[in-house]
Amino acid sequence: MTRTPWTTLPTDDETDRWDAVAEETGRLLATDALARDRANAEPAAELKLLKDSGLANLLIPRQFGGHGGHWSTGLRAVRILARHDASIAQILSYHYCNQASIVFFGDPSRWEHWFSASARGSWLWGDAVNPVDPDLVLTPDGPGYRLNGRKRFATGASTGDVTLVMAAEGEAGARVLASVVEHDRDGVEFAGDWDALGQRLSASGSVDFHDVAIRPEDVLGEVGDEPYSTLVTPGVQLGFANLYLGIAEGALARARELTLQRRGAWLLGTAEHYSRDPFVQRVFGELLSRTAAVEALADRWNTRFDRVIARGADVTAADRTEAEIGIAKLKVVATETALDVAHRVFEVTGSSSARSDVGLDLYWRNVRTHSLHDPVDYKKLEVGANYLTGDVQPITLYT
């Protein structure tokens, strides 16, 4: 039995079309990315670009009013945007996974309702699911519930049209339910407390729920451990890897611009310009090669994720484990490569590139901030333990 709307694989035409859309959207975002980072304001205009471009509706099946795109296409769009504005790329990446909860946790009879409403409004989906916080609580109230509690790091909630909420049913918390809450529902309060080193426009502040009414029709379904539904977490981690890869690619492109703009050459060198200095060329060669290796692995797992998603309810625990471990390997090398690239590009761009108005620091600040989401050492543990003993980590919203 297949329980998924994503049963096909993308064509070259689809990939080319949406790569071009993401490139144009990224180009528009790049014009003032540094100024917006400094202002640290909510990204309202930037998110309108995502809606107007069609990227918000990319993964919604055509029969429900969307563009009928595939996961690999959306992940490539995240990567491309991250070269120019990693905060907006993060919001888009989370949006795809939050929106897909319609399928992962929802009854197929309700897919048309949720997807069609989302497509009509070009909804962006934020989340309140952070598992390291105390659970939000759903208290039974008539046919529905009352939602209370706080979630930190609620990416996209303050700027999204709707928020995906995961909350325990009752004080005992026997079940966790996924629900959808619109931005302006009574009792929803956004703290506006996101002020981080990087990813400053990712709208990742806290959200409080004060006796928020949750109607039966707001509930998508139970968050369980069925293999297909739990693919959402490898999907999230795959989005992270594409985000980091895009940041590395953006840092290299900006460093190339700055290197070519430099005057002259190092006084003790023999080259006539920095771009011809063998030490500069060596650094670029090393960083480009390592980034290309991450790109190859990311492309491999973007494609394989399409294939496993296409199996729907036929996905087995073994399939899920294979995706988890493969994507964990990618997450490790994407994290460490992007961090290394984003700080070592300063070696070839010189002291002038450290000026605040140049903004080369933005790439490092962004990847350093987001890569703290969950410890990369635990991803190494996942991979190593599985290789040595066959152990699989407990399924969580991190594994």
TrEMBL record:
Gene Ontology cellular-component terms for this entry are: cytoplasm
- Primary location: cytoplasm
Domain Acyl-CoA oxidase/dehydrogenase middle: start-end pairs: 139-212
Q: Which organism encodes this protein?
A: Mycolicibacterium hodleri
| Any one Gene Ontology BP term | L-leucine catabolic process
User: Catalysed reaction(s)?
Assistant: dibenzothiophene + FMNH2 + O2 = dibenzothiophene 5-oxide + FMN + H2O + H(+); dibenzothiophene + 2 FMNH2 + 2 O2 = dibenzothiophene 5,5-dioxide + 2 FMN + 2 H2O + 2 H(+); dibenzothiophene 5-oxide + FMNH2 + O2 = dibenzothiophene 5,5-dioxide + FMN + H2O + H(+)
The record places domain Acyl-CoA dehydrogenase C-terminal at 238-374
* Pathway connected to this protein: Sulfur metabolism; dibenzothiophene degradation
Q: GO molecular function terms here?
A: 3-methylbutanoyl-CoA dehydrogenase activity; flavin adenine dinucleotide binding; monooxygenase activity
Going by the entry's taxonomy, the superkingdom of the source organism is recorded as: Bacteria
Ranges of residues in domain Acyl-CoA dehydrogenase/oxidase N-terminal = 17-121
> Which Enzyme Commission number(s) are on file for it?
1.14.14.21
User: Which named protein is this?
Assistant: Dibenzothiophene monooxygenase
UniProt cross-references to Gene3D superfamilies, sorted A to Z:
Acyl-CoA dehydrogenase/oxidase, N-terminal domain, Butyryl-CoA Dehydrogenase, subunit A, domain 2, Butyryl-CoA Dehydrogenase, subunit A, domain 3
Q: Does Nucleotide-binding count among this protein's keywords?
A: yes
InterPro entries hit by this protein = Acyl-CoA_DH_C, Acyl-CoA_Oxase/DH_mid-dom, Acyl-CoA_Oxase/DH_mid-dom_sf, AcylCo_DH-like_C, AcylCoA_DH/ox_N, AcylCoA_DH/ox_N_sf, AcylCoA_DH/oxidase_NM_dom_sf
- Enumerate the subcellular locations listed in this protein's record, separating them with semicolons: Cytoplasm
Q: Tell me which family the UniProt entry assigns to this protein.
A: Belongs to the DszC flavin monooxygenase family.
**UniProt keyword annotation of Oxidoreductase present:** yes
- Could you tell me the keywords of this UniProt record? Flavoprotein, FMN, Monooxygenase, Nucleotide-binding, Oxidoreductase
